[in-house]
Amino acid sequence: MIEGLPGTTNRRGRLLALAALAAGAGAAAWALRDLPAAFGRRPDGGREERVRDSPQYRDGVFHNAPSTVARAKSTPDFDRDTVRRMLFQREGRVPAHPVPTVRPPGGSRPAAEGVEITWYGHASALVEIEGTRVLLDPIWSERCSPSAHVGPKRLHPVPVELEELPQVDAVLISHDHYDHLDMATVKRLVRSQSAPFAVPLGIGGHLRRWGVPEHRIIELDWDETCNLGELAVTLTSAHHFSGRGLTRNTTLWGSWVIAGPTRKVFYTGDSGYFEGYAKIGAQHGPFDAALVQIGAYDAAWADIHMTPEDAVLAHRELNAGLLVPVHWCTFNLGLHPWSEPIERLLAEAKQQAVPLAVPRPGERVDVDNPPELDGWWESVV
User: For the residues 236-263, what does the mean pLDDT come to?
Assistant: First the structure.
């Protein structure tokens, strides 16, 4: 075939198209290379016996405790109207201006002898209690997703790099959803920290797949306690669900009691309002503070995420002192306006006389001397 004739041009075009297709496929494969690992792994080996023996486990999955007050269904109800609102009802769901962050002070200072809480955004927080440190549901990735390229994107930068955190005594995970258990963050923590990961039953399978050493994995059922020196952490119940792919509820979910010799903090994880809060308060309270989920609520999944009003009710039943709201601000995961959770929480907390601290991401709160509310979020919307 002679250069420049129509047949030559067509052949060259086909070759270029095939090359572009191959390059695109290669780029897609590269972008998705970590996807299978991010899904994690089902409970494995002899550890399945502990899962099968759990009172929460039957018919191959974990279940919530029976409840007469939890609303709706045991998993989200994504009907046509909910999908329509997710796709088209977007006004106000992200902040109009940059979210202010605070860079925590560096250095190797000892952990607080009282109770201090540093909130990094969403549900990630550092609890310092009587000389020990506990890291809650850390996610330092740009997206809460199995992919680094698709999924809800961070609305503010991380206040501090993960490797700059002080050494902690435990990393606590509430459940295996992507906005609470992040593969990339776990892998970084394996390198930068030496603390164990305390997790609900079944989540150890995910951690093993991601290279967490066996001696750093502690799996607990509800109402089981792990003692780490003077620190005691107890997995307590929550009304939620689990899953990182199409299969749900093969791992357990929960909340956490964090106890020093004389002081206590509670973390709700994700949960709908249910009778468990009164039981936890009676069994483990009073608490100096509680980190309570307030965002990503909707009538379509009212049984698995609390409204701000639910959060105040749960906080009171827990017999907790200072309320520190979490699970808002950082990712667009709900259908409500960005600032609605904190505005509704303020109104309800004021009406119920519940003490409240609303830190900026990265800001430390001394529970015994909390900062005054300054409405910082009002300049963001």
Answer: 97
Per-residue pLDDT at 2: 39
Q: Phi, psi at residue 103, to the nearest 5°?
A: -85, 115
Residue pair 252/227 in contact by the 8 Å Cβ criterion: no
CA 247, CA 144: separation in Å to the nearest integer? Answer: 18
DSSP state of 163: G
Helix (H, G, I), strand (E, B) or coil at 306: coil
Q: What are phi and psi of 120, to 5 degrees?
A: -100, -5
Length of the chain as a residue count? 381
Task: Show the tokens assigned to 278.
Answer: 């009164």
Q: Is the peptide bond before 261 cis (omega within 30 degrees of 0)?
A: no
187: burial class by Cβ within 10 Å (0-12, 13-18, 19+)? middle
Helix (H) or strand (E) holding 218: strand 217-220
Lowest mean pLDDT among 13-27, 105-119, 183-197: 13-27
CA–CA dist 201, 220 (Å, integer): 5
Assess whether pLDDT exceeds 60 at residue 22: no
pTM listed for this prediction = 0.89
Question: What is d(CA 212, CA 228) in angstroms, rounded to the nearest whole number?
Answer: 18
